[in-house]
Structures are given as C-alpha cells and as structure tokens.
Design goal:
Structural class: alpha+beta
Order of helices and strands: EEHHEEEEEH
CATH superfamily: DD-peptidase/beta-lactamase superfamily
Strand order of the largest sheet: 3-4-5-6-7
Radius of gyration: 17 Å
Helix content: 10-25%
CATH architecture: 3-Layer(aba) Sandwich
Largest sheet: 5 strands, antiparallel
Distance between the termini: 37 Å
Shape: globular
Oligomer: single chain
Length: about 150
C-alpha cells in the first residue's frame, strides 16, 4: 500500500532519455521491502532504537553487527540483515534499497552513533558518494570533528 498521493513524492528513473516518472510498485510485491514507506526522521529513530536495545536485544544486535566472514570486492561484509564496513577506521552498519523510482541509503557509525540517511526520488542515483561526502564534511569540520573522535559505542 502506498501513502496518500498528497504525502508522496514522485519517483523517477533515467530511461536513457533523461528522468521520467517511474512506474510505482505495489510495496507488497517486493517481499523484502516490508511494504514500508518512511522518512529521514523515522529511520534515524529506528537506528537509535536498534543501537540502544529498544528494537532487538543487545545479543541480537551484536549478532547483526558481527561479520559472517564473507568479504565482497567492495570491502563489505554482512551480519544478520545489515551490511558492515569500515570507513576511516570507524565500523559502520548500512543498508540500501531501491523500489520504483526511489533509492535509500542508511548508514550508522557504530562507535559514535553518527547516522547518515539519504533518500532520493531517483531510483538510478548512486548515493555512496553523497553519503561519504556528508560524512567527510562532518568529520572534517572543526565544529563537529569531536563526534568522529574518541567515539563511544
């Protein structure tokens, strides 16, 4: 089920002739999406609940953020439901997804709790460069660098 049209963005795709409105999918058709629509605030709230034992037990969260031992060509590994990576010596959990005109990436630094959520209504955009640009801007900022140093779990 989709949110009401008045609360929805139009999703786009690049069909080789520029951006065109994408075909909207019934969220229940793509099983793993969970038939969810969300926003930045809800995803950050979810991330905090997950990290602080309010969504799953601390033992379950530890299992989710422990590598299964497989390492892909990009340096990512996988826990239970989460991709794992190390960015500038910081462990992160992340997940991304795309459905009918939309793309999302959700990154959480496990040591500091810095969370970067990028939502776009272009299903073909690569959000990785934007996520890392935001992270580099935060960690490179004199005012915010303390968030990246001496991080606490």
């Amino acid at each position: 089920m989709l949110p009401p049209t008045s609360l929805s963005a139009t999703g786009y795709t690049d069909n080789g002739m520029g951006l065109q409105p994408a075909i909207l999918w019934d969220r229940s058709a793509a099983f793993a999406t969970g038939a969810l629509s969300s926003n930045v605030y809800d995803l950050v709230t979810w991330d905090n609940a997950l990290r602080h034992g309010m969504a799953v037990s601390p033992d379950s969260f530890k299992a989710m953020t422990t590598s299964n031992g497989f390492l892909d060509s990009g340096g990512n590994t996988y826990g239970f439901g989460l991709a794992l990576y190390t960015f500038d010596h910081h462990p992160i959990m992340w997940h991304s997804g795309q459905i009918g005109g939309f793309y999302a990436e959700n990154v959480v630094f496990l040591d500091s709790g810095i969370t970067v959520v990028v939502l776009t209504n272009d299903q073909d955009v690569d959000t990785d460069p934007l996520v890392f640009a935001i992270t580099n801007a935060v960690c490179g900022s004199a005012q915010l660098v303390a968030n990246c140093e001496n991080a606490q779990p």
